[in-house]
Amino acid sequence: MDSANPALPNTTESPQPQLTTQPSRYESQKRRDYNNFLNYLKTHNTPPLSLPDCSGAHVIDYLKYQDQFGKTKVHVTGCVYFGNPDPFAQCGCPMKQAWGSLDALVGRLRAAFEENGGAPESNPFGEKAVRGYLRDVRKWQAKARGVVYKKKKRVVGSSNATEAAVSLINFSNQASGCGVGEGSGGDGTFGSITYAETNDRIKGGLV
Hints:
By secondary structure, this protein is mainly alpha-helical. It is built from six helices and four strands, in the order ααββαααββα.
């Protein structure tokens, strides 16, 4: 009587599923903005323009064209609410794109232009005229709406300061015989030195 042959293990590897990464919200918005601008060049110019023929003047025209989709009330000079940040009634002043929205739009288009093979030196979105237009929009909207645009200050050397603080705390702990994870309490102290004292030393140039 023949004995049955043992079943051989299946060595065929099942195909691994392909992982597809979804583009970020910023990347998706940047692609839409870029395609919308290309479409604008073709449909709102006679004859239709291509991107290599585009200049800063065309970019400014596009930014003005975007105002019709804006949701920010910008008071005109003769309006009784001109310069009033909190008008108590409606007025007939036009709605425009906020300066911040236009500035972000230009930033995305500028990046998309170079990512699609455009040379930085020929980037129409980075031309001086475009930057000047954005500055004028910011200045006028601030005056008309009675708001102040504050420029964010960039913290220089913050990572170095953090490293210096950690080093100073570790040095103090070693000197006091306190190990990491010991001597820390709810009063903002770590070992024999507080974080507040560390920050004061950093500001004073002692680190």
